[in-house]
């Protein structure tokens, strides 16, 4: 039993494998009854991790080991948790990137729900929590992508133009993404460039697509709080091994998304999200876009 790893129920990592059962047994938190809550104890049971008990218990992939918290004489004792949490946060911030090639494997809903629950802790003006999220998978996802792709073939997206003084960032990103370390498409290859562009409207092949919106009567400060929610959400997904890509281009066909997702007309669409398991070995997914230096964006004032 000492060779087993205790994985807390709140720590969920990576994906369910295609096999019905992993090769090893791990200690899985048993559901707590009222008496367990009163006594402050947690019961762990040894059982194989299967797709079924994953959905029930929310246990993550066994390949990832984590420190655990246990009770000793009524006092919580943390094993490596104090420094690991700090290190983990930094690692997940660096781990997160825009994923544009996904595996077809389904994403279990409990992973999405747990990540959304964490994101719900994001701050907001007067605690109004203005974010609204619609998430589609399976047949609904295919229907939405089909409608969006068909519309995008007819005309370009209706999105606000980028101010001139920001053009260099988009140009640099294009060179980076379509260059030799990315898609590796020559400028004169218009057909391949168009095919790559159209993948935006397929949510890059992700098995889950989502749209984030906000009440159109709210102020810019409230849009900012949606950004806080989104960052928390995608970092929580990254912790679980899931990749994401935020898409503004899909909102250029707002009438299609509102119709297909069933979104009220008084909602302003902010972005789409592609969610799924990354193709880790695809070079486009391993691109890391540069960032400006702090000196260019942050000013410290002491006098």
Automatic annotation (TrEMBL):
Domain of life of the organism encoding this protein: Eukaryota
SUPFAM superfamilies, per database record: FMN-dependent nitroreductase-like
Family annotation (InterPro entries): Nitroreductase, Nitroreductase-like, Nitroreductase/BluB
Record keywords, A-Z: Flavoprotein, FMN, Oxidoreductase
Pfam families, per the entry: Nitroreductase
Coiled coil start-end: none
Keyword Nucleotide-binding: no
GO molecular function: oxidoreductase activity
Boundaries of every Nitroreductase domain copy: 96-277
Signal peptide: none
Record-stated family: Belongs to the nitroreductase family.
Protein name: Nitroreductase domain-containing protein
């Amino acid at each position: 039993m000492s060779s087993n790893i205790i994985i807390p129920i709140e720590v969920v990592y990576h994906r369910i494998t295609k096999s019905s059962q992993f090769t090893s047994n791990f200690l899985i938190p048993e559901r707590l009854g009222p008496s367990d809550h009163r006594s402050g104890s947690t019961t762990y049971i040894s059982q194989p991790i299967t797709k079924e008990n994953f959905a029930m218990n929310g246990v993550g992939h066994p390949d990832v080991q984590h420190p655990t918290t246990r009770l000793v004489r009524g006092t919580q004792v943390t094993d490596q948790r104090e420094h690991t949490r700090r290190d983990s946060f930094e690692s997940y911030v660096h781990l997160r990137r825009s994923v544009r090639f996904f595996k077809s494997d389904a994403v279990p809903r409990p992973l999405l729900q747990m990540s959304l629950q964490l994101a719900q802790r994001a701050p907001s003006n007067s605690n109004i929590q203005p974010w609204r999220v619609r998430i589609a998978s399976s047949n609904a996802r295919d229907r939405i992508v089909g409608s969006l792709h068909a519309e995008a073939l007819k005309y370009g997206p209706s999105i606000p133009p980028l101010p001139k003084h920001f053009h260099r960032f988009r140009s640099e990103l294009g060179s980076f993404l379509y260059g030799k370390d990315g898609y590796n498409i020559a400028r004169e290859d218009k057909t391949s460039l168009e095919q790559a562009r159209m993948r935006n409207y397929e949510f890059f092949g992700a098995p889950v697509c989502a749209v984030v919106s906000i009440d159109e009567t709210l102020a810019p400060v409230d849009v900012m709080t949606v950004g806080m929610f989104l960052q928390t959400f995608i970092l929580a997904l990254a912790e679980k091994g899931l990749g994401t890509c935020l898409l503004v281009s899909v909102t250029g066909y707002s009438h299609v998304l509102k119709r297909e997702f069933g979104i009220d007309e008084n909602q302003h669409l902010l972005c789409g999200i592609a969610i799924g398991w990354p193709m880790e070995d695809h070079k486009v997914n391993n691109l890391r876009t540069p960032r400006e230096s702090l000196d260019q964006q942050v000013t410290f004032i002491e006098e």
